[in-house]
């Protein structure tokens, strides 16, 4: 079946818009997005950008979904290829640190940035950001539950995510060159007793 060239071009333009929108939002927040700015930067018409989204809120929601898809491809999918257990947990944590440290988005972790922006604002964007954050915590908790020696996977997930997010903050806000190294050391130290207990 032949794909309509206009449809394919439209989808390609949409992907380009959302990729740039996620890059901007990681630095300036979702409120920093505007249809006019994206049209200018990507050299497309305002009406063309508007036709894809229809409103600023829809642009924000679509940007969050696009950033989530990138995160899943880069961090989650490779880890889920590993059987449940310590190896999968290691891959999730290492993947997150590589995603933030490697500046998949120029502002570090996209979700760390927009959570701070929307944590106290009611609405659809906040709900979506909160849901994705809860899913990430749930994935770490469920993965930790399959690790021998873990008695409170929710607590462990809380601590591990705190290490990751602090590394992101120290790197982005304080330009700390050792932030990710420190986070990896903290993760190893926290998980070492579990490795000993499981051996």
TrEMBL record:
The UniProt record lists the keyword DNA-binding: yes
Pfam family, one: TetR_C_13
InterPro entries per UniProt: Homeodomain-like_sf, HTH_TetR, Tet_transcr_reg_TetR-rel_C_sf, TetR_C
Keywords: DNA-binding, Transcription, Transcription regulation
DNA-binding region: 34-53
Ranges where the HTH tetR-type domain occurs: 11-71
PANTHER family linked: HTH-TYPE TRANSCRIPTIONAL REPRESSOR NEMR, TRANSCRIPTIONAL REGULATORY PROTEIN
The protein, known as: TetR/AcrR family transcriptional regulator
Organism placement in taxonomy: Bacteria, Bacillati, Actinomycetota, Actinomycetes, Pseudonocardiales
């Amino acid at each position: 079946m032949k794909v309509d060239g206009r449809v394919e071009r439209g989808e390609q333009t949409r992907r380009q818009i959302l990729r740039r929108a996620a890059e901007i939002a990681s630095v300036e927040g979702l409120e920093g997005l505007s249809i006019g700015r994206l049209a200018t930067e990507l050299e497309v018409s305002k009406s063309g950008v508007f036709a894809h989204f229809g409103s600023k809120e829809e642009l924000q929601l679509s940007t969050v979904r696009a950033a989530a898809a990138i995160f899943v491809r880069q961090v989650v999918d490779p880890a889920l290829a590993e059987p449940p257990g310590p190896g999968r947990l290691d891959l999730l944590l290492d993947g997150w640190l590589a995603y933030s440290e490697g500046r998949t988005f120029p502002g570090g972790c996209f979700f760390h940035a927009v959570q701070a922006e929307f944590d106290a604002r009611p609405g659809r964007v906040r709900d979506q950001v909160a849901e994705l954050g809860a899913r990430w915590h749930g994935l770490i908790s469920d993965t930790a539950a399959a690790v021998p020696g873990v008695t409170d996977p929710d607590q462990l997930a809380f601590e591990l995510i705190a290490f990751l997010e602090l590394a992101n903050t120290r790197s982005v806000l304080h330009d700390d060159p050792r932030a990710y190294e420190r986070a990896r050391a903290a993760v190893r130290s926290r998980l070492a007793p579990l490795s000993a207990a499981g051996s």
